[in-house]
Task: inverse folding
């Protein structure tokens, strides 16, 4: 990689392999998007299946091109989700194994499952999240979006969009899908932030590496109460579907599996969408011509939502593991090797997107982004996320004529699911 010197702002991609590999796993570089993209642009150009061997982590290969990520994710028999879901320091992987009796996850949810269990558990809720099935929820989602925008209007023309709006609106939508009310929102907010921000001093539970097990234990107690409530009094919500589901052996779903299901829906469904909402507003502020296009032609909004999701790519990676010897990007991959799917990199791939670093609400092929992944694990909530974002931006644009930055935006330090943590704005 010595010859590959790309520049991310003031920062030059390290030429030395050890420093380059450290940069790939350093969560601070994910809070500075120019750095992350400088690293990935280098990889797409020079080493599309890069062998990363950072100190303190199990080695892995970075898959940085759009076509290769699609191919790996589609071939779910050759590339499996278990045993490695995401980037964790070796020390943390060992703690997880010690705490779980040798397993490599703290909760067995859809993302760590493979066929046939994955198919069984995903089928339980898949129908609930189709575009058609979500249509009747549109009015309730719009009420929540209006409430968020009313709240902004009551703040004298200034707020931190992340804290005051973007974090709460998607969480309230998820609570609605689970049939839960406002009394649970602070709890779920805390749990999500602790799970996705273990490296960020502003969101983690504590600096103690075992804190995540306390988070999961606290969440499990809450889930058991939810399962019991939905078995006693079933409703028409997703929690009822999960609580009353059958396991593959025909018996009732185990409480740990129900917990893992609530966990993936509550966490994956909330932080991701709020990151895209904030990043979308920031880009519209930075690109007034794009905002004018949207105001002039509101029919562009669904496409703009895809461009916002492409641009923000809140999920930075998931892993796959080769189940047998194979090849990727023309290079051999041995059984047991781990592959990091770098979604934001796919979404800046010059081979797919013209001028990929330009934000364009009318981008012709914005929908081809891989921010929701691909193949059998494709984001279960993608239609819900897009519906929420479209409605939120419809309401924002209808209510306010002007938006501007009122301070420095900031991003979370996390190499997994991350996005904006501060977006001070003024509006009228
Ligand atoms: C899976 C991204 C919103 C629920 C995923 C994956 C990605 C992703 C990259 C992994 C796909 C793969 O491995 O191929 C996003 C983004 C969102 C978002 C960028 C918002 C902008 C949501 C919402 C929900 C949700 C609103 C609510 C239900 C899930 C679930 C999975 C998943 C349950 C696991 C699917 C499986 O393994 O079968 N998401 N997501 N996500 N997402 Fe989302």
Result:
């Amino acid at each position: 990689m010595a010859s590959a010197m790309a520049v991310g702002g003031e920062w030059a991609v390290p030429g030395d392999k050890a420093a380059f590999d450290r940069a790939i796993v350093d969560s601070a570089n994910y809070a500075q998007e120019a750095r992350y993209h400088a690293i990935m642009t280098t990889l797409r150009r020079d080493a599309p299946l890069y062998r990363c061997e950072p100190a303190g982590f199990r080695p892995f290969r970075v898959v940085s091109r759009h076509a290769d990520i699609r191919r790996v994710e589609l071939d779910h028999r050759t590339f499996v989700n278990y045993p490695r879901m995401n980037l964790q320091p070796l020390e943390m992987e060992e703690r997880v194994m010690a705490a779980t009796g040798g397993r490599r996850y703290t909760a067995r949810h859809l993302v760590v499952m493979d066929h046939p269990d994955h198919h069984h558990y995903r089928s339980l809720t898949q129908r609930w999240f189709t575009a058609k099935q979500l249509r009747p929820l549109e009015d309730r989602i719009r009420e929540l979006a209006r409430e968020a925008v009313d709240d902004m209007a009551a703040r004298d023309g200034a707020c931190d969009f992340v804290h005051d709006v973007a974090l709460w609106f998607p969480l309230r939508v998820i609570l609605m899908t689970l049939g839960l009310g406002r009394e649970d929102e602070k709890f779920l907010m805390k749990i999500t932030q602790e799970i996705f921000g273990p490296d960020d001093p502003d969101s983690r539970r504590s600096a103690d590496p075992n804190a995540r097990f306390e988070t999961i234990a606290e969440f499990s107690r809450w889930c058991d109460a939810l399962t019991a409530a939905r078995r006693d009094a079933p409703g028409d919500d997703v929690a009822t579907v999960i609580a009353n589901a059958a396991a593959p052996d025909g018996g009732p779903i185990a409480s740990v599996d129900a917990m893992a299901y609530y966990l993936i829906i509550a966490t994956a469904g909330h932080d991701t969408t709020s990151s895209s909402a904030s990043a979308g507003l920031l880009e519209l502020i930075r690109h007034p011509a794009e905002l004018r296009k949207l105001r002039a032609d509101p029919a562009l909004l669904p496409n703009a939502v895809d461009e916002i999701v492409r641009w923000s790519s809140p999920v930075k990676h998931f892993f796959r593991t080769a189940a047998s010897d194979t090849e990727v990007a023309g290079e051999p991959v041995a059984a047991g090797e781990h592959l990091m799917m770098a979604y934001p990199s796919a979404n800046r791939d010059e081979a797919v997107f013209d001028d990929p670093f330009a934000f364009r609400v009318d981008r012709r092929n914005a929908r081809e982004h891989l921010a929701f992944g691909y193949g059998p694990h494709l984001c279960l909530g993608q239609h819900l996320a897009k519906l929420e974002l479209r409605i939120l931006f419809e309401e924002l644009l209808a209510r306010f004529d002007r938006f501007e930055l009122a301070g420095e935006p900031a991003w979370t330090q996390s190499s997994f699911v991350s996005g904006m943590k501060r977006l001070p704005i003024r509006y009228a």
Remarks:
- The chain has one domain: 5-427.
